[in-house]
Amino acid sequence: MPPGPDVATRSWASAAVRRFAAATNLLVAARRFRLVGGDARDRQALHALLTALGARAAADHEPVDQLWCLGDPEESTAAVEREADRPRGATLVVVDAGRHLPAVDEDAFGPVAPARPGVLAVPMLSDDVFLVSTGRDPEDDPAADARLRWARRSMPVSRAVAGELRDGGLLRGTRVGVAMVLEPKTAVLSLLLRDAGAEVVVYAHADETDDAVADALRRAGLPVFAESTATTARQKDLALAMLDTRPHILLDDGAHVIRLAHQERPDLLPTMLGAAEETTSGLRPLRVMAARGALGIPVVAVNDARTKTFFDNRYGTGQSTVFAVLDLVDGLTSGAHRVQPGGSAVVAGYGHVGEGVALVLRALGFTVTVAETDPVRALQALFAGYAVAPLVDAVREAEVVMSATGVTDTISLDVLRACAPDAVVAVAGGIEQEVALDAALAAGATLRTVGRKAERLTFPGAASGPVVLDRGGCINITAAEGNPVEIMDLSFAAQLGAVRMLLEHGDELERAVVPIDPAVDEATARAALAAFGAHAEPPDRVAEHPADREPDVRTSRFGDPA
To answer: Looking at residue 457, what DSSP letter applies?
Structure first.
């Protein structure tokens, strides 16, 4: 077997893929790619990383989604011109991944124009060809309208489902409250609902609000109750103001607004068709409320849709959280952390999110240990090739510690004390105090800022301690642009399916957490397969059986039944 890429080459490949993702907010998994030019070792490293993340090298006859250019600009120009000949609407992202010099001559294609920060459109070639350079970071420019347009073009499944709602006229006269992370994809969902006939009102928590996106929605005529600088008291006032518009349907993330409605606006509940919740941590308290008979509306468990959990939780959160963590680490001085290429990482929890986090960390070269309290999931991790150990033991030598449980105090006081000095601690997804910072501070620990969204936690008598990112917040939201667009397209298509359920059957549904209709999953998956350039095997036609005769249940394994 030929030797693998050296550490420096693997680090370059990691940085290139992360810069591509930061510039585009696009997915790596499931995309077809082709490499053009460059050194053989660089090509090997980039090919290995892309495939480990779930991308697929395209066959010679196949069109590609991503063209990674590594070498001579003239060779890249010819490849781009060949790949640009494609059906309208089939997006091609050309990635300049030149390691030492640019590999793409941007001037070779005529005038270019910004499509979003870090992405250039090439109108002389096609409306569907875009250029990205991994040699420079995206501009620090909110450019909300451009980011909304970019997100919308990459959300074909949600667009199709919203179009069906519009054509059916189901949403006319319905007020929908959207209480989610306020970034471009959520804004597109809100506008799709508006265009389908709904009255839409929007709320977001302060740390989940992109003010430029909020302003873009206000310019589009939507009432937006969100401010990135809002205090806790102000956030409550904003959430109550949104509820006071009396939405018929709530789309929530974390179930905070659903619960607030029960606590502060119970008179609203009889007028509501229901709600939809898209997170595991949000469904937990709602199920407790339902068991107590305290849930006053049906809540569709969007989180449990297969097209949400299997993709959003695993591929979306895995990519976006790990990339966000390493991007923040790259911004720290070398002495502020102990993270090294090919180092060690610990993942707490091996549900769908933990699976994705572990997968991405391993793809980037980390040796991963999983800590999981459920013995069956721990066994799954072992079978997937990870070491398994108790969390307090696993963190002692780890360089990166990521919680993927959505459970309070996962990274407990004892775990924080056990972390190696200068280890980096972060949360994938998460809820309040998933990292037990309040307990650590009560025990006398101090926090000192060491970089953007990075603070060193030091206990009394210790010379140093771990670096906690964003105080244990949802790292891909507060330090990046959330999950990739194509992933949220699936999740939001499921949300729109839940809206249809509530519109058509809300009066009939039990006041409980109700499963999403399996037909929503199937329709979403088939539409997504088409968008990704693939198709499922058609379902087998069930042989008709005479209605007046039961099927023969006798076995023929031992000869003809007597």
So the answer is: E
Q: Which amino acid is at 433?
A: Q
- Phi, psi (deg, nearest 5) at residue 282: -75, -35
Residue 344: strand pairing partners: 367
What is the rounded CA–CA span in Å between residue 153 and residue 127?
11
CA–CA distance, 495 with 497 (Å, rounded to integer): 5
H-helix segments, 295-388: 306-308, 317-330, 352-363, 375-383
Return the H-helix or E-strand segment holding 469: strand 467-469
Q: Which residues contact 69 (CB under 8 A, 6 or more apart)?
A: 36, 37, 38, 75, 76, 79, 80, 94, 95, 96, 97, 98, 103, 104
Higher confidence at residue 142 or residue 173?
Answer: 173
d(CA 270, CA 546): 47
Asked whether the CA dihedral 250, 251, 253, 255 is positive or negative, the reply is positive
What DSSP string runs through 77-139? HHHHHHHT---TT--EEEEE--SSS-SS-GGGGS--EEEETTEEE-TTT-TTEEEEETTSPPP
pTM of the model as a whole: 0.92
Distance CA 482, CA 321 (A): 8
Residue pair 78/37 in contact (Cβ under 8 Å)? The answer is: no
Q: Mind listing the pLDDT tens digit for each residue in 31-60?
A: 999 999 999 999 999 999 999 999 999 999
Rounded distance, CA 465 to CA 457, Å? 5
d(CA 125, CA 160): 27
Length of the chain: 562
Q: 334 vs 256, which has greater pLDDT?
A: 256
Q: How far apart are CA 477 and CA 206, in angstroms?
A: 11
Output Rg (C-alpha) for the chain, integer angstroms: 25
Strands 32-36 and 56-57: parallel
Residues in Cβ contact with 48 at an 8 Å cutoff, skipping those fewer than 6 apart: 4, 5, 13
Strand partners, 348: 371, 403
What digits encode the pLDDT tens for the residues 500-540? 999 999 889 999 999 999 999 999 999 899 888 887 877 76
Beta-ladder partners of 176: 200, 249
220-229 pLDDT, tens digit each: 999 999 999 9
Which residue(s) pair with 467 in the sheet?
424, 456
- pLDDT at residue 350 greater than cutoff 80: yes
Higher confidence at residue 561 or residue 541? 561
